[in-house]
């Protein structure tokens, strides 16, 4: 996007009455206005005695947007001012989003980093009192990786193929029905998915609690997210590419596999990872289907397992300083795990993608 | 081009590192928490009570589910029991009494923990699981008390009685310096602030016991029946005892209710209750034990069912009225043969003096001898 | 992930040069078999998904019908939730419908513009040096489990919103909606939940919109710039119209999470059976939160009643999605595929 940026910077306002080189705000203007409005907001906030810093932030944001519009309108003219206005809005959105998001991460890090060490990572909670220190998350980490892995193995191929079907083949009633049900599926409360698996798999078919029954529920939750995001990405692949491939005599399936999917692989990966991230953080269905365990169970098909979100929920419920620290520590690890998976997926996507970077 | 290749290999390298680290992680997990930091917590219970634990001849892993009120007690017990009998792993899922009983009746767990005795319909349903003419029975196991926790600046000691409590929780009294509260607390400077009352947003046995007390002892000030669901007007709600105590801790001028262990862990003050005895009763385990000792049998048709009927309106000296008893629900006949031995060994430990003593300092109430003797007899007859 | 036109055709030619000799020898047979296998597999997945969904829907409808038959009051207009009352089971979803819709609407009103802003920032405004790490940061936040959002919301966000709430009450209290009935009470309201949900769905909407914006054909953008458009005019005429169906889809994904969010809402909201238009006052409830809180102690009717409420959530999601689909369908000319 660097070209777009530089082109935009270079393009002067085509207003003939003004000289082309004049009537531009200096390059430091946005930064200057930002500093000015933050200072003003602090002054107003402190002056009016506003207790919440949120209010200061809101005032600063409003000031920034309006000052940059006003100044630009005065100096550069209407169209440039509008451009400045939206640029400042976009920057404000960025800052608005960064503040709570960073606050959340920093908070989690502050609360959790003190307990995370080697012992925490490779020990289970077996024999540890909830009201005492010590113990670890190994059993939960292992459970999460296995359950999410199994769920992804089930849901990602089905979701991907369904999206391919909807975009490339789907016509008529079946496609309409699938679209309809995928839409409904995005609205399943996670606990309902859990109950469904419980009723069918554990009660009607009589299987015992295991990591795998949790995976089944997670797979149900994952599918619609994969389908919808993949569908969206496949639709964006220009038709010209498909037509070019067909014109060269490439069969349709090969066009899809070698042209359409590789073109959209970045977006598809993002979609799958969003889905993985979502199910990795699920508590309710897992609690119902995987049961809980304090000990390591390496077999996801047999016996109760643990899972990181359930672990966090459980430790939060114990409600003492040690269990709180463990809960936040586990949260930190969970975020790191999902981020790691994300990076791996992106690495693979970049490696398989036809474009050499961007 | 060069840059781009770098980017790609960097991504691959990160991926490889993550993969390798996760693989190495998979190789070195350990269940043994006794060597390091865990030892302070883990062996605290087991060293004192190891002698009291007699492992089953045929050890087996057990699943159990139910009440969150007894969560910490089970936690203490399973740490000690697991240390003494390594093959008898117990996994306890605290999803609520109702969920526990349901899982028990589905045959998915060895025993359930419940804050309320089995209802007739639940007993009926249990007959499908307890094979050979057995049925689900209630064994009182964990005594506890619901403490009225408060957070009012400058007030260390607060006395309340049932009608006042009922009005506070029903938003009929909304200021801390209301005459009803002031009358019970002579000499205490109460702030003129609004009362922030917190109750449970989830259904729970704790709410059931508190409202049972209010309904019985408040002379009609509490107009609702005893129920798991909160019925009072106004106030705010929070999920689970952990949520209520976290709110009371952080919100000034607040009041709420939670099991004693939550009050202790959060350093929250508990109100004393004016019951009609000569002086107000503090929320302590000893005072709750006095009340539980006077509990009568609920008179279930099955003699093995030891459900208790608690006297919430007690006026005895030093008897704290808002108590709760958590039952372990098992089959009297027809428990699963593979876990029966382990179940009996575990329950024999928990009802033993050592077992009851181990939870005494965690905010629970050791059961009085007259109750625990009966429970021991019934455990011996389980089959 | 910009669509760089030079790269893809090269791949296409590679593919065709690779296959053409083989294809010539085996004529159409191979490709047709491959085609039918692939088509069958993808259609099969679609059907499998359909079967699973139909099973869940059937399961829900069956359980709901049991409960609704036992309900002694009107399911749609009752406020109380007391299904396990043996004499008089009564439960209704009025509060839940209101709470779910309002909190999700607040979340969408806040999150969608901000998310579009961030996505544009990453794809079109930010210097690459900032954009790349920031994109990762946003993805990272999609990974934060909801229980953490809940804890953070209860311990950090609620205390910090007190000032903003009294401010809103002071200046906008006359609107009735922003009236605070109990100043000083912790802000565990639908409004707070809406803000928390906005933060939660922000990463989802941003991530998908960003990918969509990156797929905007470079030609369109350059054409707009060549005509002398400012950057904003280029975005308005080339990027946003192209990305619109994608933005809507992304918002629907976010909305799905906002509507169905359980643990975070249960931790932050002070649930009650009161339906109040004072959005800043504590109280109200949402479907998923209600299911999670009532499930543990629910009896058999109670469980079925919760299923019935789940079914309503289904229907709501369906209606919202249907509306979105219709909007997208009207703009189909921008879709690259031949659907």
From TrEMBL, chain A:
The protein's superkingdom reads Bacteria
Matching entries from InterPro entries are given as: MetI-like, MetI-like_sf, Phosphate_PstA, Phosphate_transprt_permease
**Cellular localization per UniProt:** Cell membrane
SUPFAM superfamilies documented for this protein: MetI-like
What's one Pfam family here? Answer: BPD_transp_1
Q: Where is the ABC transmembrane type-1 domain?
A: 141-345
Q: Which keywords accompany this UniProt record?
A: Cell membrane, Membrane, Phosphate transport, Transmembrane, Transmembrane helix, Transport
The biological processes this protein is annotated with in GO are: phosphate ion transmembrane transport
Which segments cross the bilayer?
28-48, 54-73, 85-109, 148-167, 174-197, 209-227, 256-279, 327-345
User: How would you describe this protein's topology in the membrane?
Assistant: Multi-pass membrane protein
Q: What Gene Ontology cellular component terms go with this record?
A: plasma membrane
Carries keyword Transport? yes
- Which GO terms fall under molecular function for this chain's record? phosphate transmembrane transporter activity
Which purpose does this protein serve, as stated in its record?
Part of the binding-protein-dependent transport system for phosphate; probably responsible for the translocation of the substrate across the membrane.
The record's family statement is: Belongs to the binding-protein-dependent transport system permease family. CysTW subfamily.
Protein name in the entry? Phosphate transport system permease protein PstA
Q: What is the lineage of its organism?
A: Bacteria, Bacillati, Actinomycetota, Actinomycetes, Kitasatosporales
Automatic annotation (TrEMBL), chain B:
SUPFAM superfamilies annotated for this entry? Periplasmic binding protein-like II
InterPro entries, alphabetized: ABC_phos-bd_PstS (IPR005673), PBP_domain (IPR024370), Phosphate-bind_PstS (IPR050962)
Instruction: Spell out the GO cellular component terms annotated for this protein, sorted alphabetically and separated by semicolons.
Output: ATP-binding cassette (ABC) transporter complex
Q: Which GO terms describe its biological process?
A: phosphate ion transmembrane transport
For this UniProt record, the keywords arranged alphabetically read as follows:
Phosphate transport, Signal, Transport
Signal peptide annotation: 1-26
Task: Please list the residues that bind phosphate.
Answer: 67-69, 97, 115, 204-206
Q: Which residues form the PBP domain?
A: 61-353
Q: Give GO MF terms, alphabetically.
A: phosphate ion binding
What is the superkingdom listed in this entry's lineage? Bacteria
Similarity comment: family membership = Belongs to the PstS family.
- Descriptive protein name: Phosphate-binding protein
Q: What organism is recorded for this protein?
A: Streptomyces tateyamensis
Automatic annotation (TrEMBL), chain C:
Domain named ABC transmembrane type-1: residues: 97-324
Q: Where is this region: Disordered?
A: 1-33
Q: Per UniProt, what is one GO molecular function of this protein?
A: phosphate transmembrane transporter activity
Q: Which InterPro entries match?
A: MetI-like (IPR000515), MetI-like_sf (IPR035906), Phosphate_PstC (IPR011864), Phosphate_Transport_Permease (IPR051124)
Which Gene Ontology biological process is one annotated for this entry? Answer: phosphate ion transport
What is the protein's membrane topology class?
Answer: Multi-pass membrane protein
The cellular component terms of Gene Ontology attached to this UniProt record, alphabetical and capped at eight, are:
plasma membrane
Cellular location of this protein?
Cell membrane
Give a yes or no for keyword Metal-binding in this entry.
no
Domain of life according to the entry: Bacteria
The record, for PROSITE patterns, names: ABC_TM1 (PS50928)
* Membrane spanning stretches: 41-62, 91-122, 134-158, 190-209, 258-280, 305-324
Outline what the protein does: Part of the binding-protein-dependent transport system for phosphate; probably responsible for the translocation of the substrate across the membrane.
Q: Supply the PANTHER family for this chain.
A: PHOSPHATE TRANSPORT SYSTEM PERMEASE PROTEIN PST, PHOSPHATE TRANSPORT SYSTEM PERMEASE PROTEIN PSTC
The record's NCBIfam families line, in alphabetical order, gives: phosphate_pstC
How is this protein named in the record?
Phosphate transport system permease protein
Q: Which organism is it from?
A: Streptomyces tateyamensis
